[in-house]
Design goal:
The protein is α/β, with parallel strands linked by helices. The chain has 14 helices and 16 strands. Bound molecules: NADP nicotinamide-adenine-dinucleotide phosphate and magnesium ion (MG).
Length: about 400
């Protein structure tokens, strides 16, 4: 059998710990035997980031911007403990933060669904994709602990003379204040990424904020989305028969719980932080959450939503067997290969991605699972296997499909 050919390379960002081990297994067992895999390789593993003073992360991000499709392994975001563990020159910034800042994207997270793992919400049948605006608001807020009686004011001084001053509260006792901001440019990028991704995946787009209470701040989000939808995306949505609709976040929460799933739910930064954990837990396992960063000008970076699974890695280093779930990392690859296939007009490549995903689902449906899933599975006899056995089982099923 001749290998499937590629035109443009994928930007490959390698990572750390257990996911780095799994990364290589996936390439060796599931990809290179079947595809003439073309990648531009960047090692985002912590030792290489330290060695290059994090230049490799910047190079990889610009490559993603140049080629348009990247696939990323989970990476360590260093903290004080990691600085010691890896003897780092500096506490390097989060690679995901750097990539996001350069691509200016929105992160979409969706669960991989299988029949034998029932969501906690029993009417959910299709994935719910959360789009989180990962910029500003409470994450960039200025806070002050008010120590005594006094007046808090909101003041703006414009460069061209605009000015604003209003009392926030006349404190009669100690308290707290917080100043948040966001930028039209960032909200616009967020909106473009959401509309583009809805079109890409042919799903409805829901957007919700608290605009009834936040009449300027949240209302601006609502207005910008409405304006961009009307001017740039409405006709494409109508052609595809998909819908954009805005609703108050309280109403959205109630609708989400009553829904069957199968749409994108776009939310502000804090809502996305909280709701994505709620949605992923309710669907089953963090190891089954996929993640893609979509930039407003149409660049894609695919990854798993989970981290480097450190606890499993330490066991692996001791020579112990691990049963780490590679599903979300495999889906990062299939997402990237499918997108590359679409952009380069290579149906065989996109078809391979579909078949690999089917092989994964078949394997799980037969009860061959990593340990994290075994306890969640219902209605089948589940057999726990280690990571390498799981990947080999997928390969057997994939080979039959090719
Ligand atoms: P984590 O790596 O996601 O793992 C947390 C726990 O979730 C694991 O200990 C494991 O539970 C379970 N788990 C996660 N993924 C799994 C999988 N594929 N298969 C089976 N079980 C899985 O989060 P963390 O321990 O908080 O973070 C570890 C490192 O990852 C940190 O250095 C952090 O900076 C980094 N991180 C990177 C990214 C990214 O690159 N996008 C995201 C998050 C965290 P059990 O141990 O109970 O089996
Ligand atoms: Mg969170």
């Amino acid at each position: 059998m001749s290998k499937i050919q590629m035109k443009t390379p994928l930007v490959e960002m390698d990572g750390d710990e257990m996911t780095r081990i799994i990364w290589k297994m996936i390439k060796d067992e599931l990809l290179t035997p079947f595809i003439d895999l073309k990648t531009e390789y960047y090692d985002l593993g912590l030792p290489e980031r330290d060695k290059t003073n994090d230049k490799v992360t910047y190079d990889a991000s610009y490559a993603a911007k140049k080629y348009g499709v990247a696939v990323k392994c989970a990476t360590i975001t260093p903290n004080a403990q990691r600085v010691e563990e890896y003897n780092l020159k500096e506490m390097w910034k989060s690679p995901n933060g750097t990539i996001r800042a350069i691509l200016d994207g929105t992160v979409f997270r969706a669960p991989i669904i299988i029949d034998s793992i029932k969501p906690v919400v029993k009417n959910w049948k299709k994935p719910i994709t959360i789009a989180r605006h990962a910029y500003g608001d409470v994450y960039k807020a200025t806070e002050y602990r008010v120590p005594e009686k006094g007046k808090a004011e909101l003041v703006f001084t414009g460069e061209n003379g605009a000015s604003f001053r209003e009392t926030i509260y006349d404190f009669e006792c100690p308290g707290v204040i917080q100043g948040q901001y966001n930028k039209d440019s960032s909200i616009r990028s967020f909106a473009h990424s959401c509309f583009k991704y809805a079109i890409d995946t042919k799903q409805d787009l829901w957007f919700s904020t608290k605009d009834t209470i936040s009449k300027k701040y949240d209302h601006t989000f609502k207005d910008i989305f409405a304006e961009i939808y009307e001017s740039d995306y409405k006709s494409e949505f109508e052609k595809l028969g998909i819908e954009y609709f805005y609703t108050l976040i309280d109403d959205a929460v109630a609708r989400v719980i009553r829904s069957e799933g199968g749409y994108i739910w776009a939310v502000k930064n804090y809502d996305g932080d909280v709701m994505s954990d709620m949605i992923s837990t309710a669907f089953g396992s963090l190891a089954m959450m996929t993640s893609v960063l979509v930039s407003p000008d149409g660049n894609y970076e695919y990854e798993a939503a989970h981290g480097t699974v450190t606890r499993h890695y330490y066991r692996y280093l001791k020579g112990e067997e691990t049963s780490t779930n590679p599903m979300a990392t495999i889906y990062a690859w299939t997402g990237a290969l499918r997108k590359r296939g679409e952009l380069d007009n290579l149906p065989e490549l996109s078809g391979f991605a579909d078949k690999l995903e089917e092989a994964c689902i078949d394997t799980l449906s037969e009860g061959i699972m990593t340990k994290d899933l075994v306890n969640l599975a219902e209605g089948i006899e589940a057999k726990p296997v280690n990571t390498s056995e799981f990947i080999k089982a997928i390969r057997e099923r994939l080979e039959k499909k090719l």
